[in-house]
Amino acid sequence: MARYLHPELVNHIEEMLAGIKEAIDEANRDAPRHTAVGGELQATSVAGSTYRFTLAENDDWEPGQNTSVEIPLDPADPQHTVMGTILSALNGRIVLVTEIPLPDRLLARLTLIEATTWLLDKLREALVTIQQQGETPAQMGAKTFGLLPCYEGRGQPGVRIPSFPPNPEQLAAIALGMESERIILAGAPGTGKTATEAALIMEWLQAGKSVLLLAHTNRALDSAMARLRDFCAQSGLAHFVRDQRMVRLGTPKDLVGDAYRELTLPGIVDQLLGRLPQERDHLQEVQRELESRRTRLEQALPERRTAWRKQREALQKKLTTPRQERATLEAQTAGLLRPTRRLLSKLSRTGRKPCLHSRRHATHVSRRLIERAKKRRLSARIRQPAVFCTVCVESRKSPLLERWKSVERPFGHTGGRTSRHATHRAGGGRAPPA
């Protein structure tokens, strides 16, 4: 297979490669580095791995949508990197898509370098390919540099544009460009170079040819695309726009709004998807609101935790006194119940059992009544001893005790009236008189 590569073109390629390398090194040396932390893997697919990161607190970087970044994988090897794209950024949180999965050790802390040299990298790759494989048989590279002669011819312009009646020089340039391999337009600003180029592209499109329009800046390319759209609408060739025959690739700067949605690649995709873009925009708005709310809550969380901690400490201090009082009351209750427990132990040894008062309070034999019975020389054997409510006995303020102290009655007599604090017989019977 023949290899077409002019000797002088080889020298030009080497000079361009040296200049491109110098430009890339300078851009990488001055490129700011950004830090993202707290990475979480969201999804993995054929298109790549999707992660969610948070930019460092001291990093005020606000990347746009579809921002290309370079991610160093090994600090010791600057050339060992992986490319990624930031799909969205909101309140310091970014959604990152990488070509290959990231190592787990990089999820805690990740370095991002905005890829500003990708176009230079593509240009270097194209020059290296030409250097290794040579040109096509047309050898347009050598002809562009004037190393080989170019064919020149003249066509007959047929597209009429009402807003652009070309002057003789512009008309000659359009006719020459229609049938020539190369044409160079030179002129001062405002002489109509962009309009002439647009009119020439209209002639090529009308002839069924494909056109690749390039510019050194986004604004220059946007200006040419806007002029093309206007010329198509005026010349009756609007179907070129409707049929997506003209597509603006890259990142437009001036082609914004619904008027240019038919030119940009995202706008064309939205047209083909129908209502899905509206739903996508709605979901993105909801996502932004949720992210904003989450950020506000996370910012307020430390302050709320501090307030909750102070409230808990205050409540614990308030509970200290009730707890101490409870412990004191429990100790006092235990002291009051200690004699009763001893009496119950004594009764259990003699085989006598106390009754229950309404099945709710444990009842015990009144020690005072037994001692009083002994003083009056009652029967030494008490078959069914009297018992009292535990509450009344322990409180030492039983009205029944006061009545027994002041009134001489037979043992077990209630005075003809039954009350809540009346005595009960252990077996339900009546004790015999003394």
| Helix percentage | 40-55%
Mean pLDDT: 78
Level-2 CATH architecture of the domain at 150-273: 3-Layer(aba) Sandwich
Assign an overall shape: elongated
The total count of helices amounts to 12
Please name the CATH topology of the domain at 150-273.
Rossmann fold
Helical/strand content category: alpha+beta
Query: What string gives the helices and strands in order?
Result: HEEEEEEHHHHHHHHEEHEHHE
Rounded to the nearest angstrom, the distance between the terminal CA atoms is: 143 Å
For the record, the CATH class of the domain at 150-273 is Alpha Beta
Which range does the strand content fall in? 5-15%
Strand order of the largest sheet: 1-2-5-4-3-6
Tell me about the biggest sheet? Answer: 6 strands, antiparallel, barrel
| The CATH fourth-level homologous superfamily of the domain at 150-273 | P-loop containing nucleotide triphosphate hydrolases
> How many strands in all?
10
Radius of gyration: 50 Å
What is the oligomer described by this structure? single chain
Low-confidence stretches: 354-366, 377-398, 407-434
